[in-house]
Design a protein that fits this description.
Length: 203
């Protein structure tokens, strides 16, 4: 028996070879790329650092804002005096001067007594004012004369002398001074000392 006989492998056709290659290529899957662990560690650390810095800046801003003292509002009588002082620059112009002076006084009354003076005509304002105790009877009469004179200048084209304008200014300033809030100083009661006889008796 001849053991050296060659193993004969039948030749494959080109179509069969291509089919085998196609099957082989279809079964091959792409390699999965493993993410770099250090990249994610560094990214998380950077985000955390940014958040911490933002929180520290916000906290510093809150403390700085809290340290700034709040500006107290200007009291109505102080603002009224400032407006009346500014109106003196218009003393040579009767109508603008009168508008500024009367506006300053009406605004003051509105803020001082929570009274909507600028939204009413002079007649409506005076009529409603008569039924309140915001002003004394003398102050009500003075205010009525003041507003009547102002309307005469503003609407009747009356040209007053400078002396009359200064009288209006004085009347407005006097009413502000008379009605501004006044706070009484605290009453400090003196300490009561024991009579000398009682102290001697205790000894």
């Amino acid at each position: 028996m001849n053991t050296n006989s060659a193993l004969i492998i039948p030749a494959q056709s080109p179509a069969a070879g291509n089919a085998a290659q196609a099957v082989f290529r279809d079964t091959v899957k792409p390699l999965i790329k493993i993410a770099d662990v250090w990249f994610w560690i560094v990214l998380i650390a950077v985000i955390a650092a940014v958040l911490v810095i933002a929180w520290l800046l916000w906290r510093h801003w809150k403390r700085k804002k809290a340290a700034i003292p709040a500006v107290p509002p200007v009291p109505p009588h102080v603002r009224a005096r400032q407006m009346l002082e500014s109106a003196l620059a218009l003393i040579s112009e009767p109508k603008p001067f009168t508008i500024e002076v009367s506006g300053a006084l009406r605004t003051y009354l509105e803020e001082r007594f929570d009274f909507r003076a600028p939204e009413r005509t002079t007649e409506e304002f005076l009529y409603e004012l008569q039924g309140t105790n915001l002003l004394t009877a003398e102050q009500k009469l003075s205010l009525a004369d003041f507003l009547a004179n102002c309307d005469l200048i503003k609407f009747a084209k009356y040209e007053p002398a400078e002396m009359e304008l200064r009288a209006l200014h004085t009347a407005a300033l006097r009413l502000v001074n008379e009605t501004e809030p006044r706070w009484a100083p605290p009453v400090i009661e003196p300490a009561t000392a024991e009579p000398p006889a009682a102290v001697a008796a205790e000894k």
